[in-house]
Design brief:
alpha/beta, 11 helices, 44% helix, 9 strands, Rossmann fold, 6-stranded parallel β-sheet, 291 residues
Length: 291
């Protein structure tokens, strides 16, 4: 039997942070582990898969379980989690079938509906938040901590240089930051100098996989605090800094773009129909032989 345990955006950030260490103890045997800023999920085992579990994963990969319905990056995150399970040699035949079916379903939803057209992701929302505080012509100094798919999109959305934003990158692995800096014209600082550099910026965006607070309140004693955007779960930025400046976390960013999601209701109906078709096809094709 394939089993599922997990939590998503329906819990608070604080609750999700506490749940991450709890789920680690179950990461044994055949499993696929999915962790994003909005969900922590573990799929494990082999053989029969209950329809409710199949439907859940198919909806997740289609963007129908996201806080921002239709967000386009969850499919890549699921594909990456599945790929990591294959690389690490802890995936069963049943999990293979389940995730291949889910990715096929997600692809259909995105090619046959417009649910992701104009979709707003967390990276889009971070840019919207920054532009509320800084007009491009001001050439605001923006520090981005953590180089990954999410922050790379922010760099490209913001632009760099004249009439845009002056962007500086900081990453624990310097080579990764250097490659993106070379591609985009952004600056770079060493990760070890982060504490001494943070007060030099108008805004800081942080999205790392650090298991604990990375940017501490004590760093800004008697210093101005920039606008802060924390895209990490667990959080990178001490939440107490929100008493001194604008501090956005993933939940705040989702609220910023909630209004735009209403326009996707018709496409959501079509997406639900596709999910229903794919779930039935999966159950009819694979589950009969597992009875």
């Amino acid at each position: 039997m394939i089993e599922f345990i997990g939590k998503d955006h329906r819990l608070t950030i604080e609750e999700r942070e506490l749940y991450i260490p709890e789920i680690e103890q179950f990461r044994v045997g055949s499993h696929v582990y999915l962790q994003t800023c909005n969900r922590v999920e573990l799929y494990r085992g082999d053989g029969l898969t209950e329809e409710s579990l199949v439907r859940h994963l198919f909806r997740v990969v289609s963007g129908l379980e996201s806080a921002m319905i239709g967000e386009s990056h969850i499919q890549g995150q699921v594909k990456r989690a599945y790929g990591e399970a294959i690389e690490q040699n802890h995936i069963s035949a049943g999990l293979h079938r389940l995730f291949q079916g889910a990715l096929r379903c997600g692809k259909r939803v995105r090619t046959e509906t417009g649910i992701s057209e104009g979709a707003v992701s967390h990276s889009h929302a971070a840019v919207i938040a920054l532009k509320k505080h800084f007009k491009p012509a001001r050439n605001a100094e923006v520090l981005i901590v953590g180089v990954n798919e999410l922050t790379e999109r922010i760099v490209r959305f913001l632009g760099h240089g004249e009439n845009h934003y002056n962007i500086t990158l900081c990453n624990r692995t310097a080579e990764k930051a250097r490659l993106l800096a070379d591609q985009t014209g952004a600056g770079q600082i060493a990760f070890g100098s982060l504490k001494n550099e943070v007060s030099h910026y108008d805004a800081i965006v942080s999205a790392t996989s650090s298991p604990e607070i990375l940017i501490e309140e004590s760093w800004f004693e008697d210093l101005p605090v920039p606008v802060l955007i924390d895209l990490a779960v667990p959080r990178d930025i001490d939440p107490r800094l929100g008493d001194r400046t604008a501090l956005y976390n993933v939940t705040d960013l989702e609220s910023i773009v909630a209004a735009s999601l209403k326009r996707r209701s018709e496409e959501q109906v079509l997406a639900e129909q596709i999910v229903n078709e794919e779930v039935k096809m999966f159950i009819d094709t694979y589950q009969q032989g597992e009875q």
